């Protein structure tokens, strides 16, 4: 039986238009020509940039590069000014909590409690006795009290022999730094019992100590002005002769002296 399907090579296989895709070759040639043209334009632009430092891609364009340039500059200046104002308000903001007012509130509450109790409230009595005035500052012999009262500053061993120390359990040191007052350097110490502020300045050259006692009212004013930073309070110290003076600014302008 003869096959019914012709499996021989077609007679048109040898024709040129079937072996070569002329349309595809023409499209590739046009694409290569377009790429070559764009490369020449880019090369001319780069050459023009190298020859002219102030080259502009569009020479026919005139006027400012942007119509809203001044507007953007004004917005940027406005935002910068507002940020500066916000930063100033944050830096000048007064603290919400005041430990001096807390202490006063506790004293008032304790007074109300004693007045309302039939018997003395011995179970709620605090350790130590609270006095309105500070006792005289002691010397170096009470190093243990320094540590218990929250002493902050240099080491205890480095303190001079005549440097002041605390006097009781309720006395707390809030500052111990070397400060330059006038033309001399002093070891400035500040201690408070929650009301009165005791300041001492020790001169290592002359082995002398200047002391100043600030009452409760002035202590609160200074605390509010410095936002609780005793380092800023120490910057207001001045020496007049043999007396230590604390200058006050603002609405309470003046000077606090031992006399």
Task: Give a written overview of the molecule.
The chain is α+β, with helices and mostly antiparallel strands. The chain has three domains: 13-51; 96-125; 132-256, no CATH class. Helices cover 37% and strands 18% of the residues. The strands form two sheets. It has a four-stranded antiparallel β-sheet with strand order 1-2-3-4. The protein is elongated. The termini are far apart. Mean pLDDT is 76; it is low at 123-168.
Structural class: alpha+beta
For the sheet with most strands, the description reads: 4 strands, antiparallel
- The backbone outline, from C-alpha atoms, is elongated
Structural domains: how many: 3
Strand order of the largest sheet: 1-2-3-4
Topology pattern, helix = H, strand = E: HHHHHEEEEHHEEE
- The number of helical runs is 7
**What's the rounded overall pLDDT mean?**
76
Uncertain regions: pLDDT < 50 for 5+ in a row? 123-168
Cα gyration radius (Å): 43 Å
Helix content: 25-40%
Count the beta strands. 7
Beta-strand share of residues: 15-25%
Q: In whole angstroms, how far apart are the ends?
A: 142 Å
Ordered list of secondary-structure elements with their pairings:
Elements: H1 16-19, H2 22-51, H3 69-92, H4 99-116, H5 143-148, E1 172-181, E2 184-192, E3 197-203, E4 208-214, H6 216-225, H7 230-234, E5 237-240, E6 243-248, E7 254-256
Antiparallel strand pairs: 1-2, 2-3, 3-4, 5-6, 6-7
Give a brief description:
The protein is α+β, with helices and mostly antiparallel strands. It contains seven helices and seven strands; from the N terminus they run αααααββββααβββ.
